[in-house]
Amino acid sequence: MKGATFGEVFAVREFKVIFGSFVLLIAGDGIKMLALSVLVYERTGSPGLSAAAYMAGWLPFFLGGLFLLSLADRLSPRALMIAGELIRAVTCLLLAYAGLPVWGMLALVVATGLFSPVFFAARAAMLPEVLPGDAFVLGRSVLNVASAGAQIVGLAAGGTFLTFAGPPGALAVTAGLSVVAALVLRFGLPYRAARKAGDQGAVRQTLQVNRRLLADGRVRGLLLAGWLPCVCLAGAEAMVVPYLGGQGEAGVVLAAAAGGMAAGEFVVGRFAAPALRERLSLPLAVLLGVPWLGFAVSPGIGWAAALAAVGAAGLAYQLGLQRRFVDAVPEDVRGQAFGLQSAGLMTGQAVGAALIGGLGEVIAPGQAIAVSGAAGILVALALARVLRPAPDRVGA
């Protein structure tokens, strides 16, 4: 099958709208979580509570993914995406100006974040509808590259806004970005009907479809292949700060990792044909773990940044799984399938960071990073049968 081009992808008006709103979302979330973390630290002086505030956006993905994902197929995707932006805007304004106690702020972030996986699922499931065939895979590549760039820009912008306007001002900026994104979605995307009528409660249907998806060996294998190598990567990245002992140096290494991810996604998405992308999934998944082994010999910041960049470039392995995942899931529950994929990924990353963080209390941080890399290699090899394309797809 002939691969798509970036020009063909960006020629689709609906994709340009999705792309623009996605960039605003990622950049705004970076500003929001940084501002919330600083706001909590200013009020409490507690590093632990500040870290909890920064990570508060991860927990809802597990709960929302477990109980609410069927809404992604039962409601119009445009309406869901707009609702997500407006809820984010209201949340940021309440955090900034409502004078909530710290526990109230954290509870608000968790409560409103329960629907985040539904909003993400609506966007992800709409992508193969506006970009059929291989164009969908390239579109995912573009969004992944944009995500890395938007994270860096969002964190940098967040620091600037915090300096000049303080946490409330930074949160207000995020609210403004969300309103702009909602307007872009409302006037840029045509209406699309829901994929599936709700014949039972949302929670019951979500649990039922999740069981159905996980019972399918093909879908389950692709989900695990998308989750587990990233769990190991998250564990390695979580130990960068204690390894270097300084936030500034750690920022350099983590920025290099984001740059490596963007470069890998761009190169594989742009220059590898569809069949080659699928054949590259296994070696790239192994590459995701190999460079982190070098931290066992305590490299300096320059080598650490280079190793992190090369390792994160292996995330491009996921591009070879995307078309297979779309083919494997039933169309009427595609939204929930993509939501389960992203919810499991976010939850797994939090678990990976916690596990390797615990290991770092027992052994040196560099050794813990190396262990995470070795685990990533073993996981990739254990998933080799899933990561390799079926023989009948090699020439597809």
UniProtKB/TrEMBL annotation:
<feature type="transmembrane region" description="Helical">
    <location>
        <begin position="52"/>
        <end position="72"/>
    </location>
</feature>
<keyword id="KW-1133">Transmembrane helix</keyword>
<keyword id="KW-1003">Cell membrane</keyword>
<feature type="transmembrane region" description="Helical">
    <location>
        <begin position="221"/>
        <end position="244"/>
    </location>
</feature>
<feature type="transmembrane region" description="Helical">
    <location>
        <begin position="250"/>
        <end position="268"/>
    </location>
</feature>
<dbReference type="InterPro" id="IPR011701">
    <property type="entry name" value="MFS"/>
</dbReference>
<keyword id="KW-0812">Transmembrane</keyword>
<feature type="transmembrane region" description="Helical">
    <location>
        <begin position="17"/>
        <end position="40"/>
    </location>
</feature>
<dbReference type="GO" id="GO:0022857">
    <property type="term" value="F:transmembrane transporter activity"/>
</dbReference>
<feature type="transmembrane region" description="Helical">
    <location>
        <begin position="280"/>
        <end position="297"/>
    </location>
</feature>
<protein>
    <submittedName>
        <fullName>Putative MFS family arabinose efflux permease</fullName>
    </submittedName>
</protein>
<dbReference type="Pfam" id="PF07690">
    <property type="entry name" value="MFS_1"/>
</dbReference>
<feature type="transmembrane region" description="Helical">
    <location>
        <begin position="342"/>
        <end position="363"/>
    </location>
</feature>
<feature type="transmembrane region" description="Helical">
    <location>
        <begin position="103"/>
        <end position="122"/>
    </location>
</feature>
<dbReference type="GO" id="GO:0005886">
    <property type="term" value="C:plasma membrane"/>
</dbReference>
<feature type="transmembrane region" description="Helical">
    <location>
        <begin position="303"/>
        <end position="321"/>
    </location>
</feature>
<feature type="transmembrane region" description="Helical">
    <location>
        <begin position="170"/>
        <end position="189"/>
    </location>
</feature>
<dbReference type="InterPro" id="IPR036259">
    <property type="entry name" value="MFS_trans_sf"/>
</dbReference>
<feature type="transmembrane region" description="Helical">
    <location>
        <begin position="369"/>
        <end position="387"/>
    </location>
</feature>
<keyword id="KW-0472">Membrane</keyword>
